[in-house]
Amino acid sequence: VPPKVEEALKQYKYIPYIAITPAARMHAFRNNDEAFAFNSQGNLIAKGLDHSKERSIKFHEWLTASRVVEERITFYHGASRGAAFASHHKAVSELTSSHGWEIAHEYDISQRELAAQNPAHDLTELILSLPPGCVAVTFDISAAYRITPIHPSQQNSLCVYWRGIVYVDRA
After folding, report:
1. Angle between the N-to-C axes of helices 79-99 and 101-117, in degrees from 0 to 180, rounded to the nearest 10
2. Which residues of 70-87 are buried (b: 16+ CB within 10 A; e: fewer)?
3. What pLDDT was estimated at residue 46?
4. Which end of the chain has a smaller Cβ tally under 10 Å, C or N?
5. CA torsion sign, 82 to 87 to 88 to 94?
6. CB 152: neighbour CB atoms within 10 A?
7. What is the pTM of this model?
8. pLDDT for residue 125
9. Could you tell me if 24 and 2 are in contact, meaning their C-beta atoms sit under 8 angstroms apart?
10. Residues 6+ apart with CB under 8 A from 132
11. How far apart, in whole angstroms, are the C-alpha atoms of residue 123 and residue 110?
12. Can you tell me the distance from the alpha carbon of 98 to that of 54, in angstroms, rounded to the nearest whole number?
């Protein structure tokens, strides 16, 4: 694991999984990529992780990276946090099977960002709390059904059924 990734894992910071791929490891090794560098004033500063290519990771690369993260999170933050990541990774894999990698990856990124911002965030709470048969989730419910193709004559009849209650869209 590249040093700056290892340090970010220790500090429970957000890690772009593309930074843990074999190609990224080789790049860090070849370029002696250190976690710290000197700036123009001669001060030692921490280098950040590159997020620019994060969405280019392939599913098989993500799977390998996810296993590394589970192991390192367990090492630094305990078995329960490591198990939460393992459960989250399983949910992402299942979401990939049902909805494709692009959707699953966006979900993965958003959940890991939330967990890094708030370590108490339960990575699996949202998915596991959904009722059987649920096939999609969004953090912005208005965005979820406002982009659903609805014939104009049916728009006043749009309803959402959630936790045993029917909500009627009055927009």
Report:
1. 150
2. bebbbeebeeebbebbbb
3. 44
4. C
5. positive
6. 6
7. 0.62
8. 64
9. yes
10. none
11. 10
12. 22
- How many angstroms separate the CA atoms of 95 and 100, rounded? 7
For residues 7 and 73, the answer to whether their CB atoms sit within 8 Å is: no
Q: What does the alpha-carbon distance between residue 154 and residue 146 come to, in Å, rounded to a whole number?
A: 13
Two tokens, residue 53: 């290519």
Residue 156: per-residue pLDDT? 74
- Rounded Cα distance, 18 and 57, in Å: 6
Q: Give the Cα separation of 163 and 171 in Å (integer).
A: 21
The contacts of residue 134 (CB under 8 Å, 6+ apart) are: none
As averages over each run of 10 residues, the pLDDT of the chain (171 residues) reads: 84 87 64 52 51 82 93 94 90 87 89 85 66 60 56 76 79 59
Q: Where are the beta strands (DSSP E) in the chain?
A: 36-38, 44-46, 159-162, 165-168
Distance of alpha carbon 139 from alpha carbon 126, whole angstroms: 10
